[in-house]
Amino acid sequence: MAEVHVPTFAMVNALKMDKAPDPRVFAVQELGDLAAEASLAELRGCNGRVRQLLEAEQQTAKELELALAKARAENASTRQCLEQELHEAAVAKEQLQEAKKKRKESQKQLQECERADMEGTDPQRHRLQDLLSQARTLIASNGDRAAGANKLSLAQAREAASMVQQLEGLGYADDELYRALLQLGLQNLERHLEHDHPEVLACAQSLAVSLENLGDKNTAVKFYQRVFESRSLRLGKEHPETLDSAYNLAVCLRGLGQVDEAEALFRATMRGCQSAFGNQNPGTLESAEQLAEILEARSELVAAWGLRRQLLEWYRAAYGEEDLTALGALSKLANVLAAAAVAGSASPPAAAEALRAAYSRHKQVLGLGNLDTLSTAKDMATFLSGCGNDPASAEAVLRECVDVCWEQLGACAPETLTSVENLAEHLESKGRIVEADTILRRLANAQRGDLHSTAKSG
């Protein structure tokens, strides 16, 4: 087929002007058109290749993201397995050591019991057996005040209630037995005495404690409430027994989630104990401690910090600066300040300094190979690696803890396990998953070796 030539712009203009077209002009124009078409085709080809490259890179990026996510999941699973192995190894060693210890103690106790039975020289053991026999006989014969059950005399009711104190004094603990005895004693004491008689209220409070220990807080709180109200009316709100009842009621209410009511009672108890006994009284300190925890849980950090500061002064005055309770108060104060710094209501440098002071004090008094010291080290490292903007110092502290615990206490010690887990958690938070896995594996291998050696020597 013959080619069809499309007239160019120059040819059209020449025809319009009735001039003969110049072949050179046509040639130049055609060359320009061809060059433009070639450039356009080349650009299209380049664009296509670029698009292909971009698509390939996007696909590669997706594959890398999937691979990274898979690797993270595998590492997390591996870390969980390693931590489980570490815990199992530590527990196994502790159980082995505990079994050896108990075996020796059992042998010793057996020898002592045999000797005591032969000589009849163990009055405490015989007293406990007699009390248990009396208590079970009393409960069996009277039940839980079922219909038709025999009524107890006042002396018998008092004896039922007092049996609990006697059993506790002999080191025996059985809240189910205590509950049955106290219910029996209370029901019969109420038959002989006034509703708000001191013996009745004391028995009701003991019953509330047993019920709470058994997990029946809903029933326990009713007895606590009854005792508190009766003592408030009979003795006054600032009487020691009333304050004790208020504290027990507040703790139970808090456990039931009734925090507002608990807070009001803790405040009243703290003020009452301060007024009656001073700042260093256990009632004052325990009420303030509970109140501080409530404020922290509500993120009322400024108020919590003020109360924690007072508590630190009171604990130091009561027990001395190196007492464990005072050291714990120092750590709690630093942690409140750190939480306030994270929330933007305190200075990060001030919080970092407080955490360093708490860690340094624990290290000085208790040493690095102590769980409380390791806890303060972790608190400080967590803050420094985040809001404190000093991850290098955080890691240095955690590594120091690992080195000292491993060297002084061995791979199977709970303190060593805690220090290694703290360091691994820090490394993992920084994306250094391989390093975290490596140190966990190293500890697991060391624990297996120690456990094997211990079992072999035993």
TrEMBL record:
InterPro entries in UniProt: NLR-like, TPR-like_helical_dom_sf
Residue segments, region Disordered: 97-125
Transmembrane spans: none
Protein's recorded name: Kinesin light chain
Biased composition range(s): Basic and acidic residues: 111-125
Higher taxonomy: Eukaryota, Sar, Alveolata, Dinophyceae, Suessiales
Origin species: Effrenium voratum
SUPFAM superfamilies per record: TPR-like (SSF48452)
